[in-house]
Input
Amino acid sequence: MELTNTFDVSVPIETAWAILTDVERIAPCLPGAQLQEIEGEEYRGIVKVKVGPITAQYKGKATFIERDDVGYRVVLDAAGRDTRGAGNASAIITAVLEPAGSGTHVTVTTDLTVTGKVAQFGRGVLADVSAKILGQFVDNLEQTVLVDVISTADAVEAPETTTPIPEATKPAVSEAPVVRQINQPEPEAIDLLGQAGSPVLKRAVPVLGVAIAALVIWRLLRRRS
Output
């Protein structure tokens, strides 16, 4: 399914581009996400999703497959699998940035494929949820990363002085990508029912009922064995 979302940020396009393509910097702003390690252009981590009493954790990776620094267009290939084997998700995400006055307008198109419990909700619900999650992401971005950028830009800059780095102290260039561990806090799961509201809750009741019934039956059989 294809989902399209838009949002605006209050910084010029050059600044927005530098920030939004810095995955390590913006990952903590995305609800439910935790970046765990980076190897070259590959970013690995988890996303936690809560559906009623059931919490799923998707472990996966994202890679830049296109990046146009002149046209401000980037394409990512992302894929994740439920750590309990209950489903998976994959997406091709295309983001295009355009100037909007003194700020930047961003259009995000996601070609999404999901299986498992999350897929029960369908396109309409997932579109609504994705829009709300993206809204939370932008709010977090504005309140953390962008507020620091704006404060720095407004400050009076002192003349820069640079001191040449002695040749002996320059870092060695690594020929092979190195896996770098990222220490980010454990995320709270995205509550799909809470995000989408009561209409989704009604749709989810049959699905959750079956899941809970199966869990009860499994426990009874386990006690008898």
In short: The CA atoms of residues 88 and 206 lie 21 Å apart. The chain has six helices and nine strands. Residues 198-224 form the longest helix (27 residues).
